[in-house]
Write a structure and sequence with these properties.
globular, 6 helices, mainly alpha
Length: 101
């Protein structure tokens, strides 16, 4: 399983890109809840609004992520997310990843 921040570090060149490339080489089976798409769109939209990325480049990065994750994205049970959120005090977004794990 992979958090969307790890995907962003992999796709958007920066100080953590090398580490995430190494992580992908050591374990290329990355899965995520379907929520990852909206979360990554938000990260990319922030970079577009800040003029760090062009819209076309951000769309290409999103497609790269989709190619990497699409076969391993999953729905999670709402009741599991809510229960885990209550137990952990984490937000529902983070609890989706916990539920998938």
């Amino acid at each position: 399983m992979v958090d969307v921040n790890v995907l962003a570090y992999l796709l958007i060149p920066g100080k953590s890109t090398g580490s995430t490339e190494h992580l992908l080489q050591s374990d290329s089976h990355w899965a995520a809840p379907r929520l990852w798409q909206s979360e990554l769109r938000n990260v990319l939209a922030n970079d577009v609004r800040s003029n760090l990325l062009e819209v076309a480049d951000a769309a290409l990065l999103f497609q790269r992520a989709k190619d990497l994750i699409a076969a391993d994205e999953y729905e999670v049970e709402t009741s599991d997310v809510l229960r885990l959120s209550k137990l952990s005090k984490c937000c529902a977004y983070d609890s989706e990843y916990i539920a998938l794990a």
